[in-house]
Amino acid sequence: MRNPHYSRRPTMRDIADELGVTQATVSLVFRNKPGTSDEMRRKVLETADRLGYVRDESARALRSQRPTAIGVTFRTHQPFHDELLDGLYRAVSPGPHKLVLSAVSDSRQEKDAIEELISHRCGAAVILGPRITDEQLSVYSGRIPLIIVARRSDRPEIDWVTSDDQQGMDAVVDHLVSLGHRDIAYLSSSIDASGSARIDAFIQACEGRGVGEHVQVHTAGITENDGARGVEQMLAGNRRATAVVAFNDRCALGAMEALHRRGVRIPQDISLVGFDDSTIASRPTIDITSVHQDTGELARIAIERAAARMMGEEPAAGDHGQIVATRLVVRSSSGSALSS
């Protein structure tokens, strides 16, 4: 909390005056440089906290001519993005980099969010689940290094990190087939960053396990309402699936609610699987089987690559992307197929 003794924003000079040391000593502490004792470091940090001192990262970046802030675009109302943000903050702390957030929403386009990060002189931008094309992203990469999360890119100038959707879908279909399921439906979200890749992974997993001819794909989306609409489409069809796999956990939750309204029991009448293993899936009253994405590792790699790009480091040829392993977390929403 800011000390009421100061009517203006406290500075490093104020901290130095309080302690009777030079401003250079205070600066060494905040820059994590050698030359001060552990005791002096403790005193500087305690005094800074007491005075309410907050470092002006933008001014520091301008002085050094090397930006230290990493920008992040994220989509609102997305639990998966919330968990990625937590991971990004853990990845930059402690360290010289700070995060600048710029939201994408129904009323704010992705390009506007990226432009804001450029205007703030961020040294790199981490784009969570981008929906704009590689061609559009490539234009921005000429102005700021880009690292995209939850989608691949064929552009060598764009770094990317994503979860192994194929590994996740293989685990899902293995699990359902082992329970006797053959008619499996997928609720897709083709507009999302990983939408088309996840559809392909689902179909390939089914074909590889001999249930490809029974595959159903219904258009849904990323929200609860989308999941409910996708389930209604499935129930209106000629063939009811015995298991439903949703694009993400929000979609799965909407599907669950729609099935409950129709009097369809989970998992006795139909099994349900989500994707992300978010806090939604793990709620005791929801308890949805879901594919776990390692948000901590995704975030760590994104920050590592952003920091490297800011230092002018180029990845080796063909090494501008990484895939992070996934795993299936089995809960009570999946069970044996109903005997015909």
Automatic annotation (TrEMBL):
Q: Which residues form the signal peptide?
A: none
Q: Which SMART domains match?
A: HTH_LACI
Matching InterPro entries, A to Z?
A: HTH_LacI, LacI/GalR-like_sensor, Lambda_DNA-bd_dom_sf, Peripla_BP_I
What does the record give under GO molecular function?
DNA-binding transcription factor activity; transcription cis-regulatory region binding
Give one Pfam family: LacI
Domain spans labelled HTH lacI-type: 10-64
In Swiss-Prot or TrEMBL terms, this protein is called Catabolite control protein A
**PANTHER family per record:** LACI-RELATED TRANSCRIPTIONAL REPRESSOR (PTHR30146), LACTOSE OPERON REPRESSOR (PTHR30146:SF153)
Under the heading PROSITE patterns, the entry gives:
HTH_LACI_2 (PS50932)
Q: Which domain of life is it from?
A: Bacteria
Keywords of this entry: DNA-binding, Transcription, Transcription regulation
Q: Which organism is it from?
A: Acidipropionibacterium virtanenii
